[in-house]
Amino acid sequence: MRAAALATPVTAAGKGYEPPSLEAFHFKSFFDFSVLGVQFHVTKIVTMMLFATLVIAIFFLAAFRHPRLVPGKLQAAGEIIYDFIRNSIAVDVIGREGVRFAPYLTTLFAFVFLNNLFGILPLAQVPVNSRIAFPAFLALISWVLFNYLGIQRKGFGPYFKEMLFPPGVPKPVYILLTPIEFVSTLFVRPFTLAVRLFANMFAGHIMLLVFISGTTYLLTVSNFSKAFAPVSFLMAIVLSVFEMLIIALQAYIFTILTAQYVSGALAEEH
Amino acid sequence: MSDLAAVTGSVGSLGYGLAAIGPGIGIGLIFAAYVSGVARQPEARGVLQPIALLGFALAEALALIGLVMPFVFGK
Fold this sequence. Notes:
The complex is a heterodimer of chains A (270) and B (75). With 270 residues, chain A is mainly alpha-helical. Chain A has one domain (2-266). In chain A, 69% of the residues lie in helices and 4% in strands. A two-stranded antiparallel ribbon of chain A has the order 1-2. Chain A is globular and about 70 Å long. Chain B is an all-alpha fold. Chain B has one domain: F1FO ATP Synthase (Up-down Bundle), CATH 1.20.20. Helix content of chain B is 77%, strand content 0%. The longest helix of chain B has 29 residues, at 12-40. Chain B is elongated and about 65 Å long. The A-B interface holds A 1-4, 7, 21-22, 88, 92, 192, 195-196, 198-200, 202-203, 206, 249-250, 252-253, 256-257 and B 6-9, 50, 53-54, 57-58, 60-61, 64-65, 67-68, 71.
């Protein structure tokens, strides 16, 4: 008890520092409806997700509505994003066939990026992907995509045979290898894909909250502690910049891993 | 008072410290290899960068899962 009391100094009002908790991710539903008995709650997070969808749809539609040989500003912006995904992810990872998947990968990248970006945008200030349902569903789409493509390309039996019994391995090793391959391809892949994005956004948001709430707390404790409030606030700004890096990186990673799984499912047996 | 030393509060915070060791070493190794790779062959930077970032994100995810766990099982 003593250690806990030392860790959280008690103010004159008798209220110690309250670290940010899971409550920070719970939002009041301001619009409820049910379709066929399924309850839908529209919260701030859902609104932001729908807004992101709308923004991306309008942006790409407007950018490529009347494509010209010499692109205008909007078309140039759209082309930069599309070219980046097509050349450095789709073609580099999947090969020439990857051009077929470039539109989906571009949309995926833009969607994940914008939904992450809400974490540091004023007014929004909570990343949509910090609720696991969103990354989980995106990971599910990727999982269905690469398994479907693999089965479509090679047929059900050969696809699983190649996945579970990779060629060029001494026979007794399969006792160990097959269960590992089975679990890692069908269960660990979608799980880590979802949890990686979710945990990054969740942890980033918690970190920002710790320093922001720490700033306001330090301002209330004593005159001495007020001197340290700017340090905490500066740290929050530095971490926001760091978050910007993580936001872009995680969107990139999610896209490149999806491309890699697709490439693995399409690859011919060696 | 038979306890010689005791910890109160969330033990999950200790768990995070332990969980960060592995990824810390891993990320260090990844960037060490990346830096020496670029130093030896600067023109390979473009090829190495996405691989290094991918490895970084894969290793970093482990530390982040460690950070999230105390919140999930904290109470």
